[in-house]
Design brief:
Layout lengths: L3 E5 L14 E6 L3 E6 L2 E6 L6 E3 L11 E9 L5 E6 L10 E5 L7 E8 L7 E5 L5 E11 L5 E5 L1
Antiparallel strand pairs: 1-2, 2-5, 3-4, 4-11, 5-10, 6-9, 6-11, 7-8, 7-10, 11-12
Length: 154
């Protein structure tokens, strides 16, 4: 089982957020150790399927399409992936999936991913790499169709 970290989520940003997201949980997936330092999530990825899961999205009430944005600094390798579900009975990694490129050079890089659905999200998974190494993530935000911040971590 992964380590659970409770963090406050913000509804600040451009436009009006559709839901009050006061608390969200982050779960470190298998082969992942999660540490929070200030506003940075630090992942110690020890396998080829490391990442974070966000299983408490069903109460956010926001309308898509969505955007997931964050900054990443990685010493790992491989592509990143996001997974999401639109049905509360669907368990990740079932559901929708998208692969994205990550630069693994130890420098900060901005990532912006579109989640092209107008339906409510029930779960989200972010795998920032596909091989061992340390990955830092900051400014992780889920935005709604009007660019309002629905949730942010940490």
């Amino acid at each position: 089982t992964g380590k659970r970290v409770k963090e406050g989520a913000s509804s600040k940003g451009k436009g009006k957020a559709k839901a009050k997201a006061s608390v969200s949980q982050i779960r470190a997936r298998k082969d992942t150790k999660l540490k929070v330092e200030g506003k940075v999530l630090i992942l110690d990825c020890t396998g080829d399927d490391s990442g974070l899961a966000f299983n408490t999205l069903s109460k956010m009430g926001a309308v898509g399409p969505y955007t997931l944005s964050f900054r990443v600094k990685s010493a790992a390798s491989g592509d990143g992936e996001i997974f999401w579900t639109l049905d509360p009975k669907e368990v990740l990694p079932k559901g929708e999936h998208q692969t994205f490129a990550v630069v693994h050079d130890g420098e900060w890089h901005d990532i912006t991913l579109s989640i092209p659905t107008e339906s409510a999200l029930f779960a989200l998974r972010l795998d920032p790499c596909s091989a061992p190494g340390e990955v830092s993530i900051e400014g992780l935000r889920l935005l709604d169709a009007k660019s309002g911040v629905v949730l942010s971590w940490p």
